[in-house]
Specification:
binds zinc ion, Rossmann fold, 2 domains
Length: about 325
């Protein structure tokens, strides 16, 4: 068996990661008569192979993700590269947001062994762009001469950041955002209240651990701005706060232009009251500075204070020209 390595690319929180795991499970299913082609094979959920995958103990499945992502996804120590920190290598790997070379070496050792259950061995590596050069080079050697029966499934949210050498070894596969029906179905499966509003807010990227968090924060902020007193602004990370302020600002600018809000579809009237003030140039400047902050990595160090400052500025913008 020879499987082409696949690189699945698409936006964050749109189910890409879940699709990688589904494809892996499909390949490891042992039901008679199943397809054995990656992305076509479907797991039956009943056989011994499927039970091992569900339990997270399938010996022919290896999941490699950055330690920080493993924590977020609730994965075990193996995937997080624990025990590989003797050299201090994974520790320094950009605060755990990169796949370390020890993790790749572990993957290589595992890939050389024979299959435990006689089927393919499946490696899931994600995201493929989260790797420093030494790890990427080590991984490249496996992709250049993949062991027999190794099925290599990998993903990225930033195709442009994947090293060309790695990318050229994979067949590319685009992952689309879920449509409205699929997004709502996922939100319902999670028992998410107010699913329509969350779907609009997230632009159907509903596969977050908590897709409503930014929406709740923004609704609270809009209410507080309407009352003229901003108090509690915790509950989101600085990055989430900036993203939420961007969405709110876009909707305010839409409302100023006589359009309907797209992220906060049900808050038309409240936004209209906020957006009436200030001159357009000031709003554009504000928007550009937000966009710049969103592009700044590790934004910012003094998180809480910075969010507070941004909000005060928005408040001034909404009230300027009112008197
Ligand atoms: Zn099965």
């Amino acid at each position: 068996m020879d499987f082409p390595a696949t690189l699945l690319h698409g936006a964050r929180a749109t189910g890409l990661w879940e699709s990688l795991l589904e494809a892996a499970a499909g390949m490891l299913c042992e039901a008679p008569g199943r397809a054995t082609v990656p992305w076509q094979a479907r797991a039956c959920g009943q056989c011994a192979g499927c039970h091992l995958v569900q339990a997270g103990t399938h010996p022919d499945l290896r999941v490699v993700v950055p330690p920080a992502l493993a924590t977020e996804l609730g994965l075990g120590a193996d995937e997080a590269g624990e025990g590989a920190q003797g050299q201090g290598e994974t520790r320094t790997a950009a605060a755990g947001r990169e796949i370390g070379i020890e993790q790749v070496r572990g993957l290589i050792d595992w890939a050389q062994g024979t299959s435990h259950r006689g089927g393919p061995k499946v490696a899931v590596v994600h995201p493929l762009d989260a790797m420093a050069a030494p790890a990427a080079n080590a991984l490249l050697k496996v992709l250049e001469e993949p062991p027999a029966s190794l099925c290599f499934l990998t993903g990225t949210h930033h195709l442009d950041r994947v090293l060309p050498t790695l990318r050229s070894r994979c067949s590319l596969r685009a992952w689309a955002r879920p449509d409205a029906r699929a997004a709502l179905a996922e939100l319902e499966r999670r028992g998410q209240s107010d699913a329509q509003a969350v779907m609009h807010w997230s632009r159907r990227a509903v596969f977050e651990p908590d897709p409503a968090r930014g929406l709740e924060w923004t609704r609270r902020l809009v209410r507080q701005l309407a009352d003229g007193r901003v108090s509690q602004l915790d509950g989101v990370t600085p990055a989430q706060a900036i993203e939420s302020l961007q969405k709110l600002t876009l909707d305010l600018m839409r409302v100023r232009s006589g359009l309907k809000p797209s992220y906060l579809a049900d808050m038309d009237a409240a936004l209209r009251r906020m957006a009436g003030q200030g001159d357009t140039g000031a709003w554009l400047q504000w928007w550009q500075r937000l966009a710049q902050a969103a592009r700044t990595p590790d934004f910012p160090v003094h998180a809480g204070l910075a969010v507070q400052a941004w909000v005060v500025e928005l408040q001034q913008l909404c009230t300027s020209g009112a008197n």
